[in-house]
Amino acid sequence: MTEATDSRAAIVDSSGWIEYFGDGKKAEQFAPYLEREDLLIVAPIIFYEVYKKLTNEASKMVVLRFVSHALRARNPVFDSDLAVGAAQVSLDHKLAMGDAIIYTAALRLKADLVTADHHFENLPGVILI
Hints:
By secondary structure, the protein is α/β, with parallel strands linked by helices. The chain has one domain (about 10-129): Rossmann fold (3-Layer(aba) Sandwich), CATH 3.40.50. It is built from 6 helices and 4 strands; from the N terminus they run E-H-H-E-H-H-H-H-E-E. It has a 4-stranded parallel beta sheet, with helices on both faces. The mean pLDDT is about 95.
């Protein structure tokens, strides 16, 4: 696992967004990464997961705050290169499809992956909260 740097981009996993917008117990730990919009990257699958979860469990205002915030971040394209890379990462590290896509996006973009998900524990470039 890596430590945060002031100038390194970050992909915050769905778990972090949900903690932050749901006022979870780890919200403050994710805040420094989510509040650096200039360095924040939101993979499409994270947008999907968080939007779906918040729509089911939070107010419309919280959902709109999330969407507004996420759209100000960098949003990479999910293309065939990322898909093939994610498939290999899934095989190499025994990650589920969504996790492999997210981790591969972080690797390709030279970004830290910030998460509370222990599936990523001990992988290079991961900050586990």
